[in-house]
Amino acid sequence: MTEPLDQERTTDQLETIGRALDSGMFIHVRRMLQQMRPGDVAWLLESSPAPSRKVLWQLVDPDDYGEILEELSEEVRDGIIRLMDPEKLANALEDMESDDLAYVLRDLPERLYRQVLTQMDEQDRLRAEQALSYPEDTAGSIMNTEFITLRADVTIDVVLRYLRLRNELPEGTDTLYVVDKDNRLLGDMSLASLVVQAPATTVAEAMDTQVEAIPLTMSDVEAANLFERHDWLSAPVVDENGILLGRITIDDVVDIIREEGEHSMMGMAKMDVDEDTFAPVLPSAKRRTIWLTVNLCTALIAASVSNMFEATLSQLATLAILMTIVPSMGGIAGNQTLALMIRGMAVGHISDSNARWLLTKEALVGLINGLIWALAIAVVVSIWKDSIAIGLVIAAAMFINLAVAGLAGALIPLVMRRFNIDPALAGSMALTTITDTVGLLSFLGLATLLLLN
Amino acid sequence: MTEPLDQERTTDQLETIGRALDSGMFIHVRRMLQQMRPGDVAWLLESSPAPSRKVLWQLVDPDDYGEILEELSEEVRDGIIRLMDPEKLANALEDMESDDLAYVLRDLPERLYRQVLTQMDEQDRLRAEQALSYPEDTAGSIMNTEFITLRADVTIDVVLRYLRLRNELPEGTDTLYVVDKDNRLLGDMSLASLVVQAPATTVAEAMDTQVEAIPLTMSDVEAANLFERHDWLSAPVVDENGILLGRITIDDVVDIIREEGEHSMMGMAKMDVDEDTFAPVLPSAKRRTIWLTVNLCTALIAASVSNMFEATLSQLATLAILMTIVPSMGGIAGNQTLALMIRGMAVGHISDSNARWLLTKEALVGLINGLIWALAIAVVVSIWKDSIAIGLVIAAAMFINLAVAGLAGALIPLVMRRFNIDPALAGSMALTTITDTVGLLSFLGLATLLLLN
């Protein structure tokens, strides 16, 4: 009988295995690992500090290597592969679906890659080379070539007898494809439709001819958006002549959607999306250097803006105290717009036809925000610093900066996309540089013009 | 014959419909809408500026209302529902799966909700009330109750004949469930397994008894993580006695994973995840007020920290110019750690057993970052400002702030989780307040102690 999953079970498992490892109860851990599914073992490895992973991997059943490897994230997998000899690795890869095989092989160091390939049998090698020939991030790179095709003129009864002879369907099969003798896709038939058909019906009568096939060269993200929009479980992939080459299954789409979300979130925080949560200290520190360097540069740009107003600042220290407020508000307001744009682009909502409407809207939101917050800061500062003049100066600067922030937040991602730059990564840094500069320039500039004489 | 999807087709469609709408060719638009699938119409509505949506909805075929509504995002759907009268809405809801029905009904204003419910027939009303009885964000709220159950003692042949009599399976069916007379889940059989079984085999022989059933009260996010980890297409939902109540299908899981990603990304940018990209100006501006208010408070806290050093700043204007650098670097470094933690928590990688390891690691990364950037800023500032003393002061402040940033970035989300606060929303604001305060305090404090006398 089946048992409902205990909600706390998986977390408990993590605790138990962690404790057993710490106290050296390796045989106990090995037994626990054998009872876990490959997906759970992959999750356990990803949740373990780097040093424990090595020990855990040695306790894993080698028969499960392949299935676990294909579930691991890139960084963690690369670390584990470095622990394996080429022969064992080649064995582990043999049962993989072609897209997962390419996914693992693509990142191997050149030398290891060649060693693994020579260890494989002829058929697997060809399959691997074929899968690797499709460019990364295209539909081709995430499709697998294990699927079942039917001819249109046979009956359902024949199809069922054929399937019974096969005894097992390729993993994730929900649909059978109908092709002509040149392998051109004519239609498809879901298993859900197959099982309700009368045995004497022909495939031609029962099949669905309104199949939307994914072209080989479509981007994987766009393909994932189509899956999401149409609630597909799988979709056929065809070349420009309509020849069926493979199929994409929902499990790979789920990975892409998960990655897209993490990429945007980590990008906004200036973090490498590939960084392994439990990586050792030094590689972690190294990975974060790039964006900290970029940020130091933008911080120095901001400092050199205020440097132009050194005379003003030395006359009126109050300005120094207040000068961080306007850039801070501009940064937040601009990033709000930026996030909205990045999300809209990720799901394919933003095109040339609606971009201008959106730009106008966000510019207007910026103007309204500008009015609201100019008023608010004028009141706060006039009272706090007992100076209506300073209150008015900071209000004017706030209005300018928030109006600019709205416009820049909408414009930057549109411009970046045109030049094929990823706004999730570079957008917020460019934006902050603008809002910092405009914020400081307008506040200190207006103060110099109006308050000093 | 099937045609490969034109990669540009959907975007072109958007342009074409946009242009046709603008030039008032409503009959043309209506015809185009009729040829589109519900998912595409939903996507078109979401990609259209708020004013166009109203026109588009009037051109949609009322028979498609239900299917389109269930594909729409919350915000857009609420806007459209306000355009419909209760009777039409009740009709549209009738064919929906129970989870989608609850999803739509849950957000209706009380009065409209009652009106719609009285328009429904008895059976649909019961179904809706049942679905609404499960708390939001639990497995119960995303399960649907349309599924097929089998008895263990019948043969595959009988099962096939039964399915043929039914003529159609519930949407998204990939697995049939085997239950006893009390509806207790005994096992399951995928369609892929059903079609390869010999007709004389009994369900008991062919079924998989190692089914992992989702408990009714599990959180929807946790259930989604399980789907992802195990590459499930659907999973049964049971109560505490193992009674089968419904099933969760992958399409809802995909929506949850997409939402989770958007929630983290938008949260990092202080943006309401529900904000509709093409909402009108005023509601958009209003939605952004909360976080801008919070940010104004934190900016004022930072200003009041530097206010404590007014005397120092008026003596040495250079400090005012440099004082934004250390908080800026602390904010970025801290947010990097925060993003890593938020991602790790979202996929369930972080538990009590590895939290301490992670905290130590991030604190060490903070120390190493502190050393690197203290050195870098010391060199830059010593040369720029021609003062080794100021260079040393800013270096010391940088080291302190980056060390604190690493620790705070790891600690804040752990503490927030304990108190059930969502770190994706509140985390970065809390963090920035800390890094701003510590950065200004340490830089201006050390400068006051060491540079003035």
TrEMBL record, chains A, B:
A Pfam family per the record: CBS
InterPro entries: CBS_dom, CBS_dom_sf, Mg_transptr_MgtE_intracell_dom, MgtE_N_sf, MgtE_transporter, SLC41_membr_dom, SLC41_membr_dom_sf
Xref: SMART domains: CBS, MgtE_N
Domain spans labelled CBS: 143-205, 207-265
Subcellular locations according to the entry: Cell membrane; Membrane
PANTHER family from the UniProt entry: MAGNESIUM TRANSPORTER MGTE (PTHR43773:SF1)
Name of the molecule in the record: Magnesium transporter MgtE
